[in-house]
Amino acid sequence: NPGKEFNQQQVAKEQRQKQEQKQQQQQQAQAKVKEAPKPAAAPAAPKVEVGQSMIGGEVKRDPLNLIKKTEAPDLSQDKRSRQAKPLDFLVQQAAVDSATKWRRVYQLGSKSELFAVVKQPQGLEGPTHVTLVTDNANSLVLHWGVSKTGSRDWRRAPEDLRPDNTTVLEGGTACETDFQDGAERDMEAAGAKVPLQSLSLTIPAGQLDVGGITFVLRSADQTRWYRDANGNFFIPIPTKRGEDMEAADPMSSFRNDLERTIADNECNTHHWTLMHRYHKAADIINEVLDGFFEVDTAEAMADIYVWLRYSASRQLTWQRNYNTQPRILSAAQERLTNTIAKAHSKTTGEAQEWVRLMLSCVGRGGDGQRIRDEILHIMHRNHIPEKKGTWMEEWHQKLHNNTTPDDVPICSAYLAFLEADGDRGAYWRVLSDADISRERLESFDRPVKCEPEWFGSGKKDALIREFRNYLGILKAVHSGADLQASAANVGNSLPGGARGYLGYVTSHINSPQILPFLEAAVEARTEISQSLVGNRDLLYLDVALENSIRSAAERGVGSAGGCCCSGTYAAAATSLWSMVELYRSLMSVVPSLCSAHCRLPCHTELDTPTS
After folding, report:
1. Following CA atoms 489, 490, 491, 492 in sequence, which dihedral angle do they give, to the nearest 10 degrees?
2. Which helix (H) or strand (E) holds 235?
3. How much is the CA Rg of the chain, to the nearest whole Å?
4. pLDDT of 357-385, one tens digit each?
5. pTM for this model (two decimals)
6. What pLDDT, in 10s, does the model give residues 273-330?
7. Do 201 and 213 meet the contact criterion of CB atoms below 8 Å apart?
8. SS3 491
9. What is the b/e burial string over 291-325, where b = at least 16 CB atoms within 10 angstroms of the residue's CB?
10. Strands (E) located in 28-139
């Protein structure tokens, strides 16, 4: 077993180093002369260095084979353009018509579409014509109203806007108009005739009170309703007031329905939390796999990754007008991460890589109820009262009502506070490193306004044990890509050849010897790569190993002044060059090292040590 042999060699080497160090200490003690005692100096921090390779300079595999190489995607733009759809001719015709002021194609599901176009043949001085055309197989009814300029509130349509076959619903603000069909509206697609349905509305000239048409669709038998994502369809109407059409309909600036759906949920949903976002992301991934969105799969998965990445970096709201219990949040996380794993098994190439990266943005989920229960057990076991106006009670209330990934650094900060004998400076330093300010703590729906209390040295050790265990519970739910948690959860699915390498990595996370750590981490990733597809636990472990490789490489460069703004960067790069040359599979992270520190691009590609 190469992994086991690797680990045994490392253990033997460490034992020899300890024995040599012990002999040196004994020799120094014998030769020591009597002199006045000096104050003990603080122990020096271990020096970070490249270290010696454990494979003896003999590369067992070609490192270039570790880099994934993908061919051009089979589903190219040219191929998509050849897949004619029933509404294509109408869309192209409207695009070249000078009278067209606005147009949009909506996805209705089951491969059907709705095309909406607004035309003003005589400009703003004449009437406005709104035409809706669909290839949906069901007979459809337009359930609609009008909106004032700058608003989307429903109002009943004026009588002069209603077509002949319109029914005014009593007691409400909506009208209903049937779509019309006929053989003269059929279009040919893929060699077959596809029946179309259409409907036209005319807004008379001088009608300034109509800024838009707001509507949904339903089947004639009332068994199905069609919406734009979770909201209503909206068609902006240009008027003499000169409103910007894009300002009237901000969603029109997005490239496709997938992006509009994401933005609409983020901006226009009243109740919105991480739980809602995770469920919606799982739905969208399934819809992409089912072909609901007419978007290239790799492009769609990239959009979803960026969305989840913005969420993980706190650029999107985590809670709006809704509280989520931990068990409900963890169930949403588990559903999303299982959906991501399924998508990983159904995609290839670039799309599969985007899917894999999604896991770095979402916690694993699992037993979220333990978050809610265990904090209360800790307080009771250690006789900490549930007293209003104390830090522990405020955090306890937040955990009960809306736990988030912020709770991981909060728990780490409290542990630092305990280990520093009640030093609140240590508490704030850990929070600051995690980009959590006092303002953010106080902005929670259940705010944390107080600072932690010191319960005395008598409870210190017990509380440290309790909260180290509680930190593990929080990480198991919120920090899926944590290396220790991922290694613990992988279980029997870990290939035998990776066990020794993984054992070395997990026991040398902060080792000053960079090269052997990187060797073991890369070898572990290589061993599990053959079993990776669709395996959620192994995917999480792979992402965690990748993060640890990047962290170790940055630590190695940083120990020698590693930033491209520094004059010593060349020396740092030279000292690490043998490591980079040996494992060029790490090249994907090297160009990002400088930007991770100073947020400036590297001067050039890292082709030589001096670069």
Report:
1. 160
2. strand 233-236
3. 31
4. 999 999 888 788 999 999 999 999 999 99
5. 0.65
6. 999 999 999 999 998 888 777 788 999 999 999 999 999 998 999 988 888 889 999 9
7. yes
8. helix
9. ebbbbbbbbbbbbbbebbeebbeeebebbeeeebb
10. 100-109, 112-119, 128-134
